[in-house]
Design goal:
Blueprint (H helix, E strand, L loop, with lengths): L1 H9 L10 H26 L9 H31 L15 H11 L10
Helix pairs in contact: 1-2, 2-3
GO cellular component, one term: plasma membrane
Keywords: Membrane, Transmembrane, Transmembrane helix
InterPro entries: DUF805
């Protein structure tokens, strides 16, 4: 679990290669839990939602949260593409998630497929 999360951060800009199921699912689960806890802690500390900006401090906290969110989104995008490579699919399949309901279901199915020998393995 810890190794998979470390690999997530070490390969944040690696859009080639592969990521097996544990290397995909552990960082996804950990990021959701950590994100929820950090946002709840910040909102409790500030006393209001993060999007409500009443002072310069609120603006700086909101800006830091946005930068962290972009970094985690980029890492998750590269992880999704590596997971698709591991099941022998092109990284462009990540765009199927744009289709409202069916695309999300199909993308989830692609993420739970077993690993297959493929052209992206090093």
């Amino acid at each position: 679990m810890i190794e998979a999360y470390r690999d997530f951060w070490n390969n944040i800009l690696n859009f080639s290669g592969t990521a097996n199921r544990p290397q995909y699912w552990w960082p996804i689960i950990i990021n959701y839990i950590l994100g929820g806890l950090i946002i709840a802690l910040l909102q409790t500390t500030l006393g209001h939602p993060l999007n409500d900006i009443y002072s310069w401090q609120d603006l700086s906290v909101n800006s830091i949260v946005q930068v962290v969110a972009i970094i985690v989104w980029l890492g998750t995008l590269s992880l999704r593409i590596r997971r698709l490579h591991d099941s022998d699919h092109s990284g462009w399949w990540v765009l199927i998630d744009i289709i409202p309901i069916l695309g999300t279901i199909w993308f989830f199915i692609l993420m739970i497929l077993p690993s297959r020998p493929n052209r992206w393995e090093m």
